[in-house]
Amino acid sequence: MQDLKSLDQRVTQLYKRYDSVLEFESRPFIPTSENIEELESEIEDLEEELAQGEVNSLSRVEQALRVWLQESLESMKARLLNDRAFPNRYVRSLSGKVNTLINFDKRDPSTVSSILVEVLKQGPAVLRAASGLGARISEERRDMLAKDLQNLSRSCQSLPTNLSEPLSSVDTKEQEQVKEGLTNLVQKAEFLSKEVEGTSNPPQSELWSGLDYADTLARVYGIDINELLDCYRDEVEKRDRNLHALAEDVNPHRGPFQILEEDLAHYDSPEEMYQAMKNFLRVARKRSLDYLALPDGERCEVWEVPEYLKDSYPWGGYYGKHPLRGEVEGAVFLNQHNYQNLTEGWVKLNAVHECYKGKHAHTG
């Protein structure tokens, strides 16, 4: 059992390094081919160690831990394959880390600032490595990479104006380091986005394709697509029946989507939409207490969509708290650029789905 616990700790360290969390928070993973291959080699070594020993002699707890470690290593291998084939994910991850540290992190400003300075120092290397992977991906995925580089640039350009409040108590020299780091990141992102756009297509045989959806579900999440589809079909059919029955009760002369569009239409301005979401959250939170307990200090804010996500989250989403640090504050964001397509019905739905009793209430 001791060997399995040791392996568990090493697998956990592998994940923390790759995802740049906890003690690796200030060291974003730099996705060069060499670094990715090194991780893959470490995974192979761990798998070999895990395969050694007599399985039948293990207790039920040890067998469960062994299976968990096997699945975790398989999931990491699959992620490496997919992330290499979609290197824009590394760019988006860096954007999220910088945005979170500046706009969302509730820790002591000096702690946040020191982490941010280190992340920004290494940011250009992350972008360079991710862009280098673009030489072996399809044109469509290179377009995604270039777009996320541009989004990062726009996002970072909008951040210095926000520095005064979260970092007002930080040493002036460190504030300047943050601003300089953001400037360097913007310049690197803009340069690389043009470079990626000018990259020629590699031979088909050299393309990194990644995994298809079924393999991704199986290897990363341990979900069988056929079981999922069986459940999905049943749920969709049930939803359709219930939705049409409900519409019949409301108005037998109009279909459900006509009712939603006409009676729960979009808002006249982003400000009206945000105020409506705040009102819906109060109702949803109160009702959710019938199902679950919420910790002291918990709250969910309403935000505009972060700049780097505005093209990929046309409606909105959830900006989560950090459960590993025991945080209890989160935020739902709505896309102000697309408010005319966000209906009242959609906003109400997301007050539940993203917040209470959805992602926000269950994260942590």
Order of helices and strands: HHHHHHHHHHHEEEHH
- Rg calculated over all Cα atoms: 23 Å
Strand line-up across the major sheet: 1-3-2
How far do the termini sit from each other?
28 Å
Question: Quaternary status of these chains?
Answer: single chain
- The total of beta strands comes to 3
Shape summary: globular
**Total DSSP helices:** 13
Mean pLDDT score: 91
Class of secondary structure makeup: mainly alpha
Strand content: under 5%
Structure overview:
The protein has 364 residues and is mostly helical. The protein is built from 13 helices and three strands, in the order H-H-H-H-H-H-H-H-H-H-H-E-E-E-H-H. It has helices at residues 2-19, 33-51, 60-85, 88-103, 109-133, 139-158, 172-197, 213-221, 225-250, 256-263, 270-288, 344-355, 359-362; strands spanning 299-304, 316-319, 329-334. The chain has a three-stranded mixed sheet, covered by helices on one side. Helix 1 runs antiparallel to helix 2, helix 1 runs parallel beside helix 3 and helix 5 (109-133) runs parallel beside helix 7 (172-197). The chain is globular. 25% of the residues are buried.
Task: Pick out its properties.
364 residues, mainly alpha, three-stranded mixed sheet, 3 strands, 63% helix, globular
